[in-house]
Amino acid sequence: MPDKEKLIEVKDLQITFGSGRKKFVAVDHVNIDIYKGETFSLVGESGSGKTTIGRAITRINPVSAGEILFKGQRISGKISKELDREVIKKCQMIFQDPMASLNERAKVDYIVSEGLYNFHLYKDEADRKRKVEDALREVGLLPEFASRFPHEFSGGQRQRIGIARALIMEPEFVVADEPISALDVSIRAQVLNLLNRLRKSRGLTYLFIAHDLSVVRFISDRIGVIHKGRIVELAEAEELFIHPLHPYTQALLSAVPIPDPELEKKKKLIVYDPSIHDYSVDKPIWKEILPGHYVYGNQRELDGYQREIEAAAV
Amino acid sequence: MDNKKLLLSAKDIEIEFTLRGKVLKAIRKCSLDIYEGETVAIVGESGSGKSVFTKSFLGMLDANGSITGGSIMYDGTDISKYKTEKEWMTIRGKKIAMVMQDPMTSLNPLKKIGKQIQESIELNQGVKGPEAKRLAIEMLEKVGIPDAARRANQYPHEFSGGMRQRVVIAIAAACRPQILICDEPTTALDVTIQAQILDLIRELQKDLNMTVVYITHDLGVVANVADRVAVMYAGQIVEFGNVNEIFYDAWHPYTWALLSSLPQLGVKGEDLPTIDGTPPNLFNEVKGDAFAPRNRQALAIDFEEEPPYFAVSETHMAKTWYLDPRAPKVEQPKSIRMLREKMKR
């Protein structure tokens, strides 16, 4: 994938909260490149820092160390006002809970066009109305819905409103933070299809944040597995599912429920024990063990992974 | 199944809620038999009535709802006729207990964990004071909380989500109920924790000889735990059978739709099959098969007359006209037939 254009580059990113004794490292030395047009997923359990990374890219959380590049330009830390506005427009976010992320007191019309108001992205009132209608139609809602309030909609419809709000800014990059976790099974498929369709029609690039691996396999091109603020493994989706190397990835994969009673009842659960890593002398590194497949480990572990790969290849 | 003892038998249950002067028929003639020692899973989307149906076994319906028809036979009495809290207290907790979905809201934040379990033991087992406390700590150990004696003195906010759910399970299981109803016990939890909680419930079930009823919308969970599955739609059980029959040989179009919209079965780059439309409004009378308006292959009769149950096998029933001998031949969707093949990959 070297010829692909890098849209987002995250370099040695570190994010900490608090200071002194209360200092907490939420994200630790994270390196990711996200290519134009792909869906990159971050999976990990709650508290692993996956959302924090997404929020750092959209400039909601400040960065403590390292940098984030958008189309080769640094967008972390202090940047010019123009660039800041540019980033806000081009990098949009879809939030997890559609019940909580929409302003209850505002009509859909205002919710969707808030970004337009803030950046004066419309010529006149008629132009704004037309843009709102287009955005609503694009996510499969009726233009009449603009005059209603969020509580009049179901969960799936609200999530569509959230997506319309992001789309109206004509973003290039969208951070989708668990966009379907709060939705019903039957609605999940609809929202996933919508996201996939928009990616094709708009040429969007997604950072998809999830804890549900079954969804991630279906939607993503590449997956990064994050544990306690560190990315422990990164590979193409199928590769990761077929040859998981890091013990945490294996534990996570083993926990995914399979909708098949015979396989599910035979399934063996792997529990991850972080104390198996002895990093006191032999320091761990981030290594590309196969083309496009990265894993975090020390030399001894990496040798072990290498042997596993060779054994699997035979 | 023949030699198993019938524990609870709900027959033609109807439940109505009065909302702003209008009547909502939440449950429309639901029947379910629960046998001793088995695990039953009830699946369906939100609003299908799966929680309401099981809550009626414990008399936990909201004040504006009531059972308007049918019977729930348990231990020789029809508990659906119970009116007072006093009557219900002989069942609720002691015989049938419930684990709620969200461990963040089902514990009292101002009481120590140990006290909360102790309370349930004192209320239901007739032991008091230090003895109850000892049992509470024993229960905490049983649900896998390390250093139980110390942890019993802590408050809920000092516990993680998974640990809290373990405590909730401990409270429910402390009264040694015959039936444990778990209402979406893992939806609020991480996948790794989810698997652990399911294992825990399974162990407790064996240890304490309980019968477990799961309410869930996650078919992965169903595949993991269930012996039998009931699929609910718009206040009715549309299909029930052994877990393998539901997964490999489903016949109701709603079950098909649920199974085929799973992302696990999706093909990359293609759209996932979805279910169009929304469930019917239960304020109105439902005519025919409630799922017909969302079913692209609905038959003409689906809109006219409600289908009865047709037997697929001795243990497997589906409420769809597709199984009527007079109906045109309908094939199960490809994704259902492929399920077994695909999952082997």
Describe the overall structure.
The complex is a heterodimer of chains A (314) and B (345). In chain A, 38% of the residues lie in helices and 24% in strands. Chain A is an alpha/beta fold. Chain A has one domain: Rossmann fold (3-Layer(aba) Sandwich), CATH 3.40.50.300. Chain A has an eight-stranded mixed beta sheet, sandwiched between helices. In chain A, strands 2-1-4-5 form a four-stranded antiparallel beta sheet, covered by helices on one side. In chain A, helix 3 crosses helix 4 (125-138). Chain A starts with 5 loop residues before the first strand and ends with a helix. The relative contact order of chain A is 0.13. Chain B has 345 residues and is an alpha/beta fold. Chain B has helices at residues 50-55, 85-89, 113-125, 129-142, 148-151, 161-174, 191-208, 219-225, 243-248, 253-260, 334-344, and strands spanning 6-19, 22-35, 39-43, 65-74, 77-78, 96-99, 179-183, 211-216, 228-233, 236-242, 310-311, 317-318. Chain B is globular and about 70 Å long. Chain B starts with 5 loop residues before the first strand and ends with a helix. The A-B interface holds A 45-46, 154-155, 184-190, 192-193, 196-197, 211-215, 217-219, 237, 251-252, 254-265, 267, 269, 271-272 and B 45-46, 161, 190-196, 199, 217-224, 226, 243-244, 247, 257-259, 261-266, 268, 271-275, 278, 339-340, 343-344.
